[in-house]
């Protein structure tokens, strides 16, 4: 059986997962898809990245698409496709987003009994300068398949 997800189930999937695939368009017009870790607050996804190709693409064209899914096998999966807009965060909003991301990833690492280094977020482990950003979700759809 396949079908559409209702808004409550889409929200639950976005809250339960921590890895999404972010699709954007580079300045040269080429599509660019990359996995990101994220936290979700019910309206937007928050993430952090060191400078590089992804941020260059997002700055050139802030319209994005994000896919979050959970796949058991080819016949059993659930997926949310969301469209939104990228925005860099600064000052207090960046600090708040970093706390949200760090807490979400730390909670997952502890629940999975991950090694000590995984208990800290990417931000804490690398100590690198980077950009905290928000993807405001404007539209979303979801599907599932269950055997």
Describe, in plain words, how this protein is organized in 3D.
The longest helix is centred in the last third of the chain and has 21 residues, at 91-111. It is built from four helices and eight strands. The protein has one domain (2-145): Electron Transport, Fmn-binding Protein, Chain A (Pnp Oxidase, Chain A), CATH 2.30.110. With 147 residues, it is α+β, with helices and mostly antiparallel strands. Strands 1, 2, 3, 4, 5, 6, 7 and 8 form an eight-stranded antiparallel β-sheet that branches. The protein is 30% helix and 44% strand. A hairpin with a 2-residue loop joins strand 6 and strand 7 (76-88).
Which CATH first-tier class would you pick? Mainly Beta
Quickly give the CATH architecture: Roll
In CATH terms, the superfamily is: Electron Transport, Fmn-binding Protein, Chain A
What value does the average pLDDT take? 87
Percent of residues in helices = 25-40%
Put simply, the count of helices is 4
Largest sheet: 8 strands, antiparallel
How many individual β-strands? 8
Contiguous runs where pLDDT drops below 50 for at least 5 residues: 115-121
Termini separation comes to: 6 Å
Determine Rg (CA atoms, Å). 16 Å
